[in-house]
Amino acid sequence: MNEAATPRQRLLRVLVTVGPGGLWLLLFVLLPTLLVLLASLMRRGPYGELLGPLGLHNYLRLLEAPYLEAFAQSLWVGALATLLAALLGYPLAFYIARHPRRDLLLLLLLIPFFTNFLIRVYAWLVLLQKEGLLNALLLAFGLGPYAFYPSFAAVILATVYTFLPFFVLPVYASVERVDWQLLEAAYDLGARPFRAFLHAVLPQTYPGLFAGSVLVFIPAMGTFVVADLLGAGRVVLIGNLIQQQFGLTRDWPFGAALSVFLMAFVLLALYLYRRLQGERGLEDLV
Amino acid sequence: MDGVDLEIRRGEFFSLLGPSGCGKTTLLRLLAGFETPDAGRVLIGGKDMAGVPPYERPVNTVFQNYALFPHMTVAGNIAFGLRMKGLPQGEIRKKVAWALELVDLLGLEGRYPRELSGGQKQRVALARALVLEPQVLLLDEPLSALDLKLRQELRVELMQLQRRLGTTFVFVTHDQEEALVMSDRIAVMRAGRVEQVGLPDEVYERPKNRFVADFLGRSNFLPARPHPLGAETPLGPLRLKSPLEREALLVIRPEKIRLYPKGATPPRENLVVAQVEEIVYTGAENQYYLRAGEVRLLAYTLNQDLQEPGSEEFAYGEEVICYLPPENLVVIHE
HSE on the CB side for B155, CA within 13 Å? Predict the structure, then answer.
């Protein structure tokens, strides 16, 4: 690199390297976000148009019971899906990372992504419905039929199914980097296997656990498609509400307010979690 | 591992010395309980360790790369084993303080391993193991990751620590100098076998075979056949303490060969005239690469007062007289 670059040269360098990506983010992330923020402060006209004056009225509406309920249910679905994904995905990530054919297993894990998400959700519908494959199988054994669908359980099942790989992959990446000598050190210092794992291995996978939880929790809170198709109106998530406002109800300002609220909540949660982790370290909690 | 039969005494500083892949680390892992022997037994303090997992053995290990828990402070690392034992909080605090003082780390208890130097990490690893008062402390090349100066300091500290505590140390190393300096006894290993066990000077002065002579320090080797005087060698007949009865290998250490300038009056026997081919100056000594006919010899002279016999300096190409004292010619039968 040329040490004595003129300011112009330096500017050019920045523009060439950061420029394209920066422009993209500016046009398609920052600007739309600002538009949503602006819209959330406006009012819906008689034909669904956006009108002034600006105010916080949309945010006050968020406090009404049905919206708080939807928010609570979103949290519940997100938390439950994340917990189940963790219970299934954490051991699975270890199994894959320590398997001699892990390349093959990773491929298998990713194969569902080769098919469209919507089609996979519909596939669950076909499996779970009253005349579906699962009931056909149960009937063959003289059981059922059961109404697996529509139900809260079906929504959770499909949500966990959809986002499980997002949990497994970051944990897998952590496990691959685990220093197993620390496990031996823990044994050597008198820790029985379970405690040795808890103190020597688990903390090394916190980054993966954290990333996996975020990658499951956030989309699980908002996946209106799964809730719509497999919950059939019984499960209303904040994502469903947002979709309704922008589609059926044509109340864009309120939809925008819901979106801003969801974003703010997620950011706050991430921030608090990071603070907590940074200050205490999770090993003190277990 | 093959036919390893070792007895390590209580309170001894015992070294396992050998090149990489000789099985010394495997042997240590057998003691720690990380490996199980296919055959044979491991006894610690007279108790058979078969089926005893690492966390129940009365030994602790200092790992080569320390293996400190990165998410715990210095105090946390040292307290770990005590916590696993379920000791009360107050006692843990007391013992941690004792261990910190033992390894001279007072004031650093709140630091994380990433905030420590290599030597400090080493001390934490040591304290973490010693605080549990093991019957045997296993050390797996604990100094190999440090630079020379620090290594030399820590050698002395380790020796003092061992003497003070009276704990049995089993020390794995590939560094022959380290083993010679620190150990009460040394086991020299090669390819899963123990080649020789003994006091440092025994192993150095009376190597049992060519491998030991070659691995520990440097040696001159001379093939020899019986001769009335002692032995017939490529350098001519040499007198030995007692004459050879069959073919053997003679070993002589470079520092045992005495060098005399031409025209001096050396002893009358075991003399060889050689030419200086190469001189290596190491500070404390001069190393002469010599040639006598077809035979190459290596001889060291101390870099002392020039007037003292045995510390003369010679030049490239100069002819020197080498004296090979009979008592320093070690006979090896392979």
Answer: 19
* Whether the Cβ atoms of residue B25 and residue B140 lie closer than 8 Å to each other: yes
CATH number of residue B230's parent domain: 2.40.50.140
Q: Is A89 helix (H, G, I), strand (E, B) or coil?
A: helix
Which ipTM was obtained for this model? 0.82
pTM: 0.79
Q: Which CATH class is domain A61-284?
A: mainly alpha
- Helical packing angle, A117-128 and A133-140, nearest 10°: 30
The verdict on residue B5 lying in a domain is no
Contact B69 A199 (CB under 8 A): yes
Contact A181 B54 (CB under 8 A): no
> Which tokens hold the place of A169?
């992959």
A188 chain-B contacts, CB cut-off 8 A? 32, 54-55, 59-61, 129
CA A235 from chain center: how many Å?
17
pLDDT tens-digit readout, A53-75: 888 888 888 888 888 888 888 89
pLDDT tens digits along A157-183: 999 999 999 999 999 999 999 999 999
